[in-house]
Design goal:
The structure holds two protein chains of two kinds.
Chain A: H1 2-14, H2 17-60, H3 67-73, E1 75-78, E2 98-101, H4 113-116, H5 119-123, H6 128-144, H7 146-154, H8 156-161, H9 167-199, H10 202-232, H11 236-265, H12 271-284, H13 292-307, H14 319-355, H15 361-372, H16 377-405, H17 432-435, H18 440-466
Antiparallel strand pairs in A: 1-2
Chain B: H1 3-18, H2 20-73, E1 91-95, E2 115-119, H3 136-141, H4 146-162, H5 167-172, H6 175-179, H7 185-218, H8 225-251, H9 256-285, H10 291-307, H11 309-319, H12 333-370, H13 375-387, H14 391-417, H15 424-428, H16 440-468
Antiparallel strand pairs in B: 1-2
Classes of the chains: A mainly alpha, B mainly alpha.
């Protein structure tokens, strides 16, 4: 029975050039966005690989130098895009592509693409994820808004129901028809995702499968809501008006309102405030009232007593290196505290935006999509933490060498071969399993949306059945 | 205004007041506008607080330096005063103070730096640092400001209010009766559309004026009345474009449903699809060279300059005979070497940076041409430029910062290389530039092209609709 109804709906759909045009446009935009984003992501990966190799070469070829000066020269960590970034670039453009790993300072990423992007890119970005999150739902809403209301207006609904067909089945048939139209429109992007999954690790395959599940549930929820509204609406026009209004609120208004509310409920410090707090903490010392000079003298007394010598030049370690490393360790504690507070604030903002998912499934899917694509703040922060671990390891290794090899030398210069023996930065993004817990709320909300939408559609179908 | 049109206005006003859907649309627009205005105010307050913090830091540093220089002058300096007045330890903050009108359009202000640090202690790429600590997820989602409401939501309000100005009456069977009176379809359609456009514009304009006046009265941000006027004029032109577009669709004589769908499709294409296609086209037509490559080239240049740092210092002294015998002084030799190394690196990187900047300019030109594809992009540009938060403003700030940094370096180079500590008078004579306010003519020149294009579009659509309107059916 449902098969017959689907065939009937498809026949009706296939006779309308307007729908073919709509499906064709979405498919074409999908192919265009996937192809260009794929190309851009591969180009970026090549640039990252070349820059990483060049930076390592620069570090290793810095010549004879004091190790602390080499720590100041530092290294750069280049953030990789990831195999699914072509599908959903997430926050990539708004976070720096590189992090300078230098002595004394923990940096965030710099060179944000959005700062140098054309103004049009801020207005809208044609990406495969945007099509899946915004355009395909619109296609579903427009396709399904007249589904029941239109049949009622034409009088065909009463005719169908008079043939012992339950409206529930009519609704399921229409969902299947709309779903197949959506799949047709999504085919080019789906092909790109399949290629990425086939060429990647098992983690990429799991992420791709999860993306398919997320978008399947999302589209199911949208289709069910559209059919529910169509069944309850008094006319086709009313159904279209309600659904387009809902789409605007979900996709256009609420995401930006959520940003404002998140900032009010969890205000983040501005740059001046943040760095002033870092500097104050650094100047105050670990106990809150010992400037660097006081700490230097205390360390000097401590080392002289430990090694039983009269001045720093007689110490069996390079005093400057030991002192600089002590400054680093205090600085690292300050960075842990201040960045920890900053990131806690960002997490609170994220939770507020996630809770807005109760009002808009688009927000829920957006978070899940960029998380699965490996381009959200969770992944960026994982990279930042890994880069910072490497910075600390590198600076420590340089100071340690200076402390040992530079003992009793006031101006120590290391051999140029030292740099090649320093630790290298080798980053592997987190697996989906290791970070899945971060997306519990969004995943739960999406499932609830899908379940509530199906229940709503069933309720609407029963109500409409009573008054065909 | 003729008597018939006045009557039409009155009757339509009565009709509109009784329509719940219209009241709801206008109420939602008013609420969203107020929320957006509050967002703009919070954003401005945050930037002003940042500026205040930088000024506080600079003022404290200035006081410390003056006191230390006074002690040096009287021979009472302490070890803590050792670096005071040394040319490499001094700096000046160039601050871009946001205008009061930036409450209307956040524009690029949430992404771009508002401070440039002019100092001899770093390189050109250190001019803007430490400002990128905003939550990227918040930035990516975008902010709700009044410009966003105008560009995206005002057209929707206009099309929801206007798509049925003739078709609804025709479906009710009332249009034929209305047109049997001495009034034309043109007059009915335009009167009704003008009333709706006036209400929509009125809501946005009242909220905008109230917000800017509030920001101006508080006095922390500079206020230019012409900016507000230009912003409101930009909104008026954009509202005219969409009103004319709704009029043109009404004149096609489609059923109300089909008109609504056509207008929603046009909104989607003009405000979302075209801007994203324009962005895509710009990236392909004028791709930017890799910034990552620039980073690694700078570091290679730094290695090369470091390798011959001793020669650089000797060469400098040889080129400046007045410095012979000044190798000692208060400035440590490594500071002088560092200064020369950084200048050498900058010179080596200049061609790469030049190529990058040239390509950026080329891309900006492509984008400037492509924005004519979408009235939304044109309006966005006008509203950003009028509010003082557009890309051109930040580009000018960056250029000024580079020029002022060159002046600063020129002022401190000789004392630095000769190892001299500055006296109070020399310290006071250092170039301390401020960012000049933009003048009306330069902003007007920038918005002229987009504004004229929007006006031409509104007139063309209006004329087309005007010709078609007499042919609309009075009955189903």
């Amino acid at each position: 029975m449902i098969g017959t109804l689907v065939r009937r709906d498809w026949l009706e759909l296939s006779r309308s050039p307007r729908w073919w045009l709509l499906i064709g446009i979405v498919a074409l935009l999908g192919a265009l966005s996937a192809a260009t984003a794929w190309d851009a992501a591969r180009q970026y990966e090549r640039e990252v690989a070349a820059a990483s190799a060049a930076d390592l070469r620069n570090f290793e070829q810095q010549g004879a130098k004091n190790p602390h000066a080499a720590a100041h020269f530092g290294q750069y960590a280049f953030r990789p895009a990831g195999p699914l970034a072509f599908f959903d670039p997430g926050v990539s453009a708004y976070t720096g592509a590189v992090i300078w790993l230098e002595a004394h300072r923990m940096n965030l990423g710099e060179l944000r693409a959005a700062e140098e992007a054309d103004p049009a890119s801020r207005a809208a970005q044609l990406t495969p994820a945007w099509l899946f999150q915004v355009a395909v739902p619109l296609l579903l809403l427009v396709l399904l808004a007249p589904a029941v209301a239109g049949e009622r207006e034409r009088g065909t609904l009463a005719l169908v129901l008079s043939q012992s067909v339950r409206l529930n089945r009519v609704v399921v048939a229409k969902v299947l028809t709309a779903a197949s139209a959506a799949v047709l429109a999504a085919l080019p992007v789906g092909a790109g995702l399949a290629v990425a999954a086939a060429g990647g690790t098992s983690d990429v395959a799991w992420r791709t499968a999860a993306l398919a599940g997320v978008y399947g549930l999302y589209w199911l929820a949208i289709a069910a809501i559209a059919l529910g509204v169509s069944a309850l609406a008094s006319s086709r026009r009313q159904a279209v008006a309600i659904l387009v209004g809902v789409w605007v609120v979900w996709m256009v208004v609420l995401p930006r309102v959520a940003v404002g509310v998140a900032e009010r409920l969890a205000p983040a410090p501005h740059a001046a405030e943040f760095w002033a707090a870092v500097k104050a903490d650094q100047d105050a010392g670990p106990d809150g009232h010992s400037p660097a000079e006081v700490r230097r003298k205390a360390l000097e007394r401590q080392l002289l007593a430990r090694y039983g010598v009269a001045n720093v030049d007689e110490l069996p370690v390079n005093f400057t290196a030991v002192f600089l490393q002590s400054l680093e360790e205090h600085g690292n504690a300050v960075f842990d505290r201040r960045y920890g507070e900053l990131w806690d604030t960002w997490d609170r903002q994220q939770r507020v935006r996630s809770w807005f998912g109760v009002a808009s499934p688009y927000l829920t899917v957006r978070h899940l999509s960029m998380g699965l694509a490996g381009t959200d703040d969770v992944h960026v922060r994982d990279f930042t933490r890994a880069a910072e671990r490497h910075r600390r390891e590198l600076v420590h290794a340089l100071h340690e060498h200076q402390a040992r090899a530079g003992a009793k030398q006031r101006f120590f210069v290391a051999d140029p071969s030292l740099w090649a023996s320093m630790p290298r930065f080798d980053y592997a993004p987190p697996s989906l399993r290791s970070i899945a817990a971060r997306y519990r709320l969004d995943a739960l909300l999406l499932v609830l949306w899908a379940a509530a939408a199906v229940l709503f559609a069933a309720y609407a179908a029963r109500t409409a059945e009573r008054e065909p | 205004m003729s008597v018939a049109v006045t009557r039409l206005f009155r009757s339509d006003w009565r009709l509109l007041r009784s329509e719940q859907a219209a009241a709801l649309v206008l109420a939602v627009l008013a609420v969203v506008s107020v929320i957006a205005a509050l967002e703009g105010r919070v954003a401005l307050d945050a930037r002003l607080a940042e500026i205040a913090e930088y000024r506080k830091e600079a003022s404290a540093s200035d006081e410390r330096t003056r006191a230390a220089l006074a002690r040096h002058a009287t021979g009472l300096a302490t070890p803590a005063d050792a670096s005071a007045g040394l040319p490499n330890s001094l700096g000046h903050d160039l601050l871009l103070v946001p205008d009061a009108t930036s409450v209307l359009t956040i524009g690029e202000s949430d992404l771009q730096p508002l401070r440039a640090t002019l100092t001899a202690g770093g390189r050109l790429d250190d001019l803007f640092r430490f400002y990128q600590i905003d939550n990227p997820a918040q930035l990516a989602a975008g902010s709700l400001d009044l410009a966003f409401v105008v560009v995206h939501l005002v057209p929707l309000a206009l099309l929801v209010l206007g798509f049925g100005v003739l078709a609804t009456d025709r479906e009710r069977g009332a249009l034929a009766m209305l047109l049997s009176q001495p009034v034309s379809a043109r007059a009915v359609a335009w009167t009704r559309l003008a009333l709706r456009a006036g209400l929509v514009y009125g809501i946005v304009a009242i909220v905008a004026i109230g917000t800017v006046v509030d920001a101006a009265v508080r006095g922390d941000a500079p206020f230019d009345a012409w900016r507000l006027g230009m912003w409101l004029a930009g909104v008026a032109v954009y509202v005219a474009v969409w009103t004319a577009l709704v009029g043109a669709v009404v004149a096609t004589d489609l059923e109300a449903d089909a008109s609504a769908l056509a207008l929603v499709a046009l909104w989607l294409v003009l405000t979302i699809v075209m801007p994203s296609l324009a962005s895509l086209a710009a990236r392909y037509a004028a791709p930017l060279p890799s910034r990552l490559e620039l980073v690694t080239e700078l570091r290679a240049a730094e290695n090369a300059a470091n390798a011959r740092s001793r020669a650089l210092l000797q060469g400098y002294v040889a080129d400046h005979p007045e410095l012979q015998g000044a190798e000692g002084g208060a400035v440590a030799p490594f500071v002088k070497t560092f200064f020369l190394v950084q200048r050498t690196v900058e010179a080596a990187a200049a061609p790469v940076r030049g190529r990058y900047d040239a390509q950026r300019r080329a891309q900006a030109e492509v984008v400037a041409a492509l924005r004519y594809l979408s009235p939304a992009l044109l309006a966005q540009g006008v509203l950003q430029d009028a509010a003082g938060t557009g890309p051109a403003r930040y580009e000018a700030f960056r250029r000024l910062a580079v020029e002022e940094r060159a002046r600063w370096l020129a002022a401190v180079e000789t004392p630095l290389m000769s190892g001299r500590r500055l006296g109070v008078e020399q310290y006071e004579a250092l170039p301390r530039a401020t960012v000049p306010a933009e003048r009306f003519p330069e902003v007007a020149r920038r918005v002229m092209g987009p504004a004229v294009a929007l006006i031409v579009l509104a007139v063309a659509l209006g004329v087309w609709a005007q010709r078609r309107l007499p042919r609309v059916r009075a009955q189903e």
